[in-house]
């Protein structure tokens, strides 16, 4: 699958893959701003991965970097079930590039460790 994310001076294009323990199509996912429903089995475990073929965040070149996100979602934390995530950003990226990828792919500012 090819994915593209763009916002202002940020643009990312590349491959996106997803694997999880849910039934297809994932009932947990928010679609068109509508919240998702309960998971297939009460707990979802999954991994999302991206290979940035071409990417920029302002003056930063994000091309040829990889990112993976491990996640867990539990139905018992209703009504606004949070996703628990761990983001793995390519070790070849410097701190500024890691931060730009983390912020862009999570949709929010992230404190990196």
What does this protein structure show overall?
With 113 residues, the chain is mainly beta. The protein has one domain (2-106). The chain contains one helix and six strands. The protein has one helix at residues 95-106; strands at residues 2-7, 10-20, 43-57, 60-61, 65-74, 83-89. Strands 1, 2, 3, 4, 5 and 6 form a six-stranded antiparallel beta sheet that branches. A hairpin with an 8-residue loop joins strand 5 (65-74) and strand 6 (83-89). It is elongated. Residues 1-6 have low confidence and may be disordered.
Secondary structure elements and their pairing?
Layout: E1 2-7, E2 10-20, E3 43-57, E4 60-61, E5 65-74, E6 83-89, H1 95-106
Question: Which sheet architecture does the biggest sheet show?
Answer: 6 strands, antiparallel
Strand content: over 45%
Number of domain units:
1
Q: Shape, please? A: elongated
